[in-house]
Design brief:
The chain is of the alpha/beta class. It has helices at about 15-20, 40-55, 70-75, 100-110, and strands at about 10, 30-35, 60-65, 80-85, 90-95. It has a 5-stranded mixed sheet with strand order 1-3-2-4-5, with helices on both faces. The protein is globular and about 35 Å long. One of its GO terms (biological process) is cell redox homeostasis.
Amino acid sequence: MTHTQAVPAITDETFDAEVLVASADLPVLVDFTADWCPPCRMIAPVLDEVAREEAGRLRVVSIDVDHNPATTAAYGVMSMPTLMLFRGGEPVKSLVGARPKRRLLAELADELPA
């Protein structure tokens, strides 16, 4: 798993606390990822940069779909990487596939606090 300190890994067990509860204060971007997924490896450094640069406005976490099937199934994630933005405990946006940082930030801009 290619996660870093800027993007902590979460699990089925920690999902509620790390995402649903935490997103009451700050939007949480969940990266549904897998070790075998080349686009997941491509977007990992992008998410790392976003996590550091947007730390006051957005929290980024990563969840391995192979090791956390309950959360993956609960949100109907079929493709990797899927990026799901949660606010107030609810998913408000879902993006599928790797993308450059500028495009990702543009797609998230409407959902982030000013």
